[in-house]
Amino acid sequence: MKIVSVIGARPQIIKAAALSRAIKNIYSDNITELIVHTGQHYDDNMSQVFFDELGIPKPNYNLNVGSSSHGVQTARMIEGLEEIFLNEKPDYVVVYGDTNSTLAAAIAASKIHIPIVHIEAGLRSFNKRMPEEINRIMCDHASTLLFSPTKTGYDNLIREGFEKSTKKQYNADNPAVFHCGDVMYDNSLYFKEIALDKSCVLKENDLKEGNFILGTIHRDNNTDQAERLNAIISSLIQISENENIVLPLHPRTAKLLDKNLDAELFEKLKSSQSIKLIPPVSFLDMIALESNCKMVITDSGGVQKESYFFEKPCIILRPETEWKEIVEVGAAVIADADENKILMAYEKFLSNSLQNYPDIFGDGKAAEFICKTMIENN
Ligand code: UD1
Ligand code: UDP
Question: Which of 58, 77, 237, 244 has its CA 20 to 30 A from that of 100?
Answer without folding.
Answer: 58
